[in-house]
Amino acid sequence: MESNNPAIDAPLSGPDERRQRANIWRLAIAQALAGANSVVVYATGAIVGNQLAPTPILATLPLTIFVVGMALCILPMGAIAGRYGRRATFLTGAGAGVLAGLLAMYATMLGGVAGFWIFCVSTFFGGAYAAVVLSFRFAAADAVAPARKAQALSMVMAGGVAAGVVGPQLVTWTMDLLPQPIFIATFLAQAVVAALSAVILFGVQLPKPTVEQKRGGRPLGVILRQPRFIAAATCGAISYTLMNFLMTAAPLAMHMHGHSQASSNLGLQWHVIAMFAPSFFTGKLIARFSAERIMILGLLLIGISAAVGLGGTGVAHFWWSLILLGLGWNFGFLGASALVLQCHTEAEKTRVQSVNDFIVFGLMALGSFASGGILNVYGWNTVLWVSFPPLALTVIALVVLQVRRVREKSSEQPSEV
């Protein structure tokens, strides 16, 4: 819901504009560093899990715990932001990221079943860090005029391009740097990168919530029943769930089909680049064509990604599937995020954004857990086929909603806005 307050709608100028630009740059850099941490988890999680787990079916459990950590920590982190401001949340999350790297290093050194469960705890803290990183995109839109919010959100997400380069290379450069077991140096580097992110985030200057913002706004149930919010949450959830569902299984599937760790790392690198590189212009596309149309395009690209994966199990099939998956996620998730910004007032933003992300990552946790089991029992092709039904249903629902909104606009009187 956009404000009618000219003081809010007007573009920032002078010191306020410079501060907001500095915030966006800091958040974009922190997005890159935090994204590298997440790439480390995805690149190593299933492999380390497969080495340490008491049974192969639990190989991807650490990645599922990562997503569970995201889902469970979104609302508490949102509550901290609502009470103490976003920067307090940012620093709490970065601290969790440091702890995640150190615990993962200890788990791999310990080995065995005990090491497996400690590794799961480490990915939980990694998920808590990722939950905080999710709010970077919304923080970038704070104090920006409504017409510029989608672009501010998009530019911070563009910081993930660097994550797509740094993350996989961080794994490649460090995985054999120290003696066995593998990835010890990688997890130590992961902790260092999170600490560096904390230093950068410390300089972010955002206003603390006012008393009115803490207590104001409509009842949450009224907000969540809006068709626009339902569309945003559904598309965001399906886009992220299917992206994670396929990406979680892909490195292990490549390993199962005889491809090297370096090939897997490179595939993830291009996947993450594809996830974030379009962010340089996604905001402009949303402003021109509407969030709903960009969301539909994203879901269609995810479907094409699964179709390419079904074409074969060569390295090129995996790479192109992951690249298209990243592109689809960008359009689907950023389109949904931009639509969420239209569903709340300034006083409601923290609650609504946190609930949206909780819905997205609660569903994503279920998909992540199912991914490993389906891959181990039924194979990579089945993982790909399972993605089509939710995609089709969501696209149909969004098309119906778009047609309905166009009809409602055409039936409005000229005096109605």
Commentary on this structure:
This protein has 417 residues and is mainly alpha-helical. The protein has one domain (12-411): Growth Hormone, Chain: A, CATH 1.20.1250. The chain has helices spanning 6-9, 14-52, 61-84, 86-110, 112-140, 146-157, 160-174, 184-201, 211-215, 220-224, 227-256, 261-276, 279-289, 291-309, 315-340, 349-378, 380-386, 388-411. α14 packs antiparallel against α18 and α16 (349-378) runs antiparallel to α17. The chain is globular, with a radius of gyration of 21 Å. Mean pLDDT is 82; it is low at 1-14. Residues 228-417 form the Major facilitator superfamily (MFS) profile domain.
What is the strand and helix layout of this fold?
Elements: H1 6-9, H2 14-52, H3 61-84, H4 86-110, H5 112-140, H6 146-157, H7 160-174, H8 184-201, H9 211-215, H10 220-224, H11 227-256, H12 261-276, H13 279-289, H14 291-309, H15 315-340, H16 349-378, H17 380-386, H18 388-411
